[in-house]
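Exam prep: given the inputs below (a chain plus GFB), describe the expected output before reading on.
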Amino acid sequence: MSKILVTGAYGLVGSQFIGDEYQRIGSSDLNLLNQKYVDDFFYMSEKNGELPEGIIHCAGKVGGIQGNMNNQGQFFYENIFMNTSIIESARKFGIKKFIAFLSTCVFPDDVEYPLSSDKIHLGPPHKSNYGYAYAKRMSDIQIKAYREQYGVNYFSVIPCNIYGPNDNYNLESGHVIPMLIHKMYLAKKNNTDFIVWGSGNPLREFIFSEDVAKLTKLLYDNYDGSDPVVLSTSEEISIGEIVNIIAELMEYGGNIIFNKTKPDGQYRKPSDNSVIKNMLPDFQFTPLREGLKKSIDWFNGNYPKVRL
Ligand code: GFB
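Solution:
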């Protein structure tokens, strides 16, 4: 039976696609930046009778607010080339289904809320991540153009901020939740103050990586539309509240200091999850506290053998 190819299979989301139905690859298996390498990969797969039936494309050059702000060019270049090459190879080798990942940061910074897929191109994204956001927007354009010209059944999903086990805990380019967990671990260990970036006022929506994988597979099996599908809980929480929950779960009793010289970034990105809710009314999202507990337990159980 032909499998579903998962790219970025060792990352935060990709590592949640587990089972015999998946063929999992990472950047050390295939350099997606090079169109010829990607074509060769599918040529050999076809020759060996192992052409995947579909692709869940989780690979991407991703990072938190500072990772984006310091690498706008690289984030644009690598995401544009990775997405463009694999979508092009997929259609050339007749791959039937393809799911690409966007993020709610691709939406315009100044648009009527809540954020729904029809609003993606209604203005510039937030300045803190425009390189990444425009590159990701273009993968959706490529998919729409390929649906029209080649009749392929490809689409995108738009998750809000994802968190979970096996995240990237880098103390410069990481996303907020893995960085807070890592920094709080160090503050407890070294008995130092805990530094939060910014004011703590921005609002974010968070979805557990396991839920993202489950929802994506359900869409893979049941959705054939062209519109991207928002994957979120549509529940906003402030960074300050997240800090308090993590401090409670990690039993941190030290000083919590907000470093306002660090960027707050976009104030909020409230998304409209009505499409996925209508499609899967019984889907149980993992409550934030439960997801944070699992993420902290995973970190405590694996540190320092984690992605840094
Ligand atoms: O997760 P994060 O880096 O990305 O930051 P964005 C979220 C919020 O957390 C910002 C605050 O308001 C930060 O100021 N924050 C507080 C921290 N302390 C920290 C910390 O120690 N580290 C980090 N990283 N943030 C990204 C986009 O935006 O969202 C990406 O740039 C992607 O492209 C990702 O879309 C999901 O939510 O601001």
